[in-house]
Amino acid sequence: MKKLNQFESLLLDEFEEEKFHLPVHGHTYYELIYIVKGHGIHHLNQNLLPYGEGSLFAISPDDHHYFDIHSSTRFIFIKFTESYFSSKKSLFNDDLLINTPQQMMREKLLKEQVLELDEPCSTILKNTVNNITAYNCRQDISASPIVFYQVLSIFGLIKEALGKMHKYQNGPQFSNNQVIAYIHENIYTPQLIQSKAISQHFNIAPSYFGAWFKRNFKLSYRDYINNLRTKLIEKRVSAGNIPIKQIAHEFGFTDESHFSNYFKKKKQASPRDVQKSAGV
Length: 280
What we know:
Blueprint: E1 2-4, E2 10-17, E3 25-27, E4 30-44, E5 47-51, E6 56-59, E7 65-80, H1 82-86, H2 94-98, H3 101-105, H4 109-112, H5 121-134, H6 145-169, H7 176-186, H8 195-201, H9 206-217, H10 221-239, H11 244-250, H12 256-267, H13 271-277
Parallel strand pairs: 1-3
Antiparallel strand pairs: 2-7, 4-5, 4-6, 4-7
Helix pairs in contact: 5-6, 10-13, 11-12
């Protein structure tokens, strides 16, 4: 695997690509990667993390990564070596001396989940990155205290977001049974079991809820919902005492044709074929 080197203590790199120019690679330095526009999948270590406008990734020398670009993506890379922070310890407060940016860059959660910044933090991040790139016309930005404190403010945002991630990781304020009960109560109301709706109900960010669900139930939330719907639909169809049109309506399908196509895709047979085989 290719390993990239950097000798300058701080470099900025901004570019736009439709296909990422590097294969899976690592490096001897650190990177903060901000997505200005575009979307795709970030292959980070063994994880696949979807990215979009405003996404932020923290890469350490321990990591290897690659971007699978789905739509033309504009990147801003803030790349720095160990010496960038170690040479400026006189500017650190006590907390940064204990919890250094380099330690934060190695945080396991940042490699497993997409960092989610709420407002106004996402706007603050965008403005901070713009401030740094605007200052990049200077000859030596690595020596600039202004840029240094702007970079530190990004780590402040990461730290705040990590605090929320750890809170969810260490135990949300709800149980597995409560989540399952909610799903079963609302399975006939599709809008209430969308990821955003159930996350809001349990007061947890959608990206964290998805990771929590998969960790606790060993399959994705989407797969669980699809499996449950299919089982309930098959049971209703096989009973034979409810019109197909009514079942379609109960499960939120726009019409009977859409419902039949969904059922056939899942069971390799139409609803009426299943009823016939059941002797209905």
